[in-house]
Design goal:
Chain B: Residues 100-150 form the RNA polymerase sigma factor 70 region 4 type domain. The complex is a heterodimer of chains A (289) and B (165). Chain A contains five helices and 14 strands. Chain A is of the alpha/beta class. In chain A, a hairpin with a 2-residue loop joins strand 2 and strand 3. The longest helix of chain A has 41 residues, at 42-82. The relative contact order of chain A is 0.07. Chain B has two domains: 1-87, Rna Polymerase Sigma Factor, Chain: A (Orthogonal Bundle); 95-160, Arc Repressor Mutant, subunit A (Orthogonal Bundle), CATH 1.10.10. Chain B contains eight helices and no strands. Chain B has helices at 4-30, 33-50, 57-77, 79-83, 96-106, 110-120, 126-133, 137-155. In chain B, helix 2 crosses helix 3, helix 6 crosses helix 8 (137-155) and helix 7 (126-133) packs across helix 8 (137-155). Classes of the chains: A alpha/beta (289), B mainly alpha (165).
């Protein structure tokens, strides 16, 4: 081998024609993004965005909590004012203190878990969908309880989480942590195998026996038609037995198989073996001269 | 520090000059052109974000190649890359001899095929390869010799070639 062969081969390896242009466009898009936000370091940028989001969330949470506590306090005060038993009612001050000491009522947000499993933990109880690790705990509900929902798959019932399986469900936990426990797993579907759609090939197929007898065995029970030896067994049905069929003459269905006779019928056995048992013989007659 | 115009120009120039080299080295590592192009794009993205300052164009090329090797290594380690079973790259359009040689090099362990690629495709010396791969010159020499010997077993030849230290 010469040096030039490898270099020439590598040079000829085909790459995308528009690679440079596509990459340049992508890079300029990134540059535009970073120009809008003058911070150059993307990790710092990401961190700041996260912090800002977290602060915003915290602020919103507390605002909602305090507002809820205030409404609750006003409600309790107004209810207590209408009651006739002032001895058992706590004072307004106590009420407000109670309400504000409780944590704010926060709503839960359900996030869909939907996609293909890319990794499964060693214990098989966690799997990764996208960038999210999902843990299946004892509290995780398997399958859907809706009346019209499909039956959960066997994989789901057995909790067999495998790479490539399609999973759907949801969690009410914070997905930004990267790891959550699933509240519900609706279904777990194994990807369709390549041969799943193919029809079964194990069925029997009837093949016509049709032609002239070229040879007959010594015992007279077998004959050769079109290079296939056909044996007439006690199970072979002779003649046409359909209710609408007319009566068959002995001429058309002779009992003896002779060389030159025209024979018709069928077999359910494999013709490629060269020897089959006849399932049915319709006719066996000497052709007109 | 670059201004926006200079950055655009330096990126475009680097793309024109080095993208093919980077794709080819990533291909030598990952054996798949689509992955190699993805890695090369990531390298340019890093180039854009870090905006490194280079002493000269050779320094720039070496940095890009080093980063391409690192990012290719990272891709090899990822779970999704390990778990998949990709269709081998179709090289049937290459002439028979070239295809055989390329397949033989790609079948080598990566510690041999990367120095071989850098030497035979990029034309780097052992010292330059050692600097790029952050290894000792003697080690790179051994890798090259061992790689050549394995190639000789596979396809013959190369025995008359020498690499100057």
């Amino acid at each position: 081998m010469k040096k030039s062969v490898y270099k020439s081969a590598m040079s000829r390896v085909r790459t995308s024609e528009d690679f440079k242009e596509a990459t340049y466009q992508k890079l300029m898009l990134e540059l535009d993004k970073s120009t809008i936000n003058p911070t150059n370091n993307s990790t710092i940028q990401k961190g700041r965005i996260k912090m800002e989001k977290a602060n915003k969330k915290k602020l919103t949470g507390w605002t909602v909590g305090i507002a809820a506590a205030a409404i609750l306090a006003v409600g309790v005060i107004s209810v207590n004012q209408n009651q006739n038993n002032p001895a058992s009612a706590p004072t307004n001050q106590e009420q407000t203190a109670d309400a504000t000491s409780k944590p704010p009522i926060m709503g839960k947000v359900a996030v869909n878990i939907d996609g293909v499993i890319s990794e499964v933990s060693e214990d098989g109880k966690s799997f990764k969908v996208g960038d999210l690790w999902v843990e299946v705990t004892d509290k995780t509900q398997l399958g859907s309880s809706e009346p019209t929902a499909a039956e959960p798959s066997q994989e789901l019932l057995n909790k067999e989480f495998k790479v490539g399986n399609i999973v759907s469900g949801f969690t009410s936990q914070d997905v930004s942590t990267g790891k959550v426990s699933a509240d519900v797993i609706y279904n777990l579907i194994a990807p369709e195998k390549e041969d799943a759609g193919k029809p079964a090939t194990t069925g029997k197929m009837a093949v016509n026996i049709d032609g002239f007898i070229s040879e007959v065995s010594a015992d007279g029970k077998s004959f050769k038609v079109n290079d296939v030896w056909v044996t007439v067994t006690p199970d072979t049905i002779m003649g046409i037995t359909e209710p609408t069929a007319g009566e068959q003459s002995d001429e058309l269905l002779q009992k003896e198989f002779k060389v030159g006779n025209a024979v018709s019928g069928f077999t359910t056995e494999d013709l490629s073996t060269g020897k089959v048992n006849a399932t049915r013989i319709y006719n066996n007659f000497a052709p007109q001269k | 520090m670059y201004n926006s115009y200079e950055l655009n120009e330096s990126v475009r120039r680097a793309l024109d000059l080095y993208s093919q080299s980077m794709i080819k080295i990533a291909f030598a590592y990952l054996k798949n052109i689509a992955d190699a192009e993805e890695v090369t794009q990531e390298v340019f993205l890093t180039y854009l974000q870090k905006r490194p300052v280079f002493e000269n164009s050779e320094h720039e090329k070496a940095w890009l190649i080093r980063t391409t090797i690192n990012k290719s290594k990272n891709m090899l380690k990822t779970g999704w890359f390990k778990s998949r079973n990709p269709v081998p790259e179709d090289l049937s359009y290459l002439p028979k001899e070239e295809s055989e040689v390329l397949q033989a090099v790609l079948s080598l362990d990566k510690k041999y095929r990367i120095p071989i690629h850098l030497h035979y495709y990029e034309g780097y010396s052992i010292q330059e390869i050692a600097a790029i791969m952050q290894a000792k010159s003697a080690t790179v020499g051994t890798w090259l010799a061992r790689g050549r010997s394995l190639l000789k077993e596979k396809i013959g030849g190369l025995e008359d070639e020498e690499i100057c230290l």
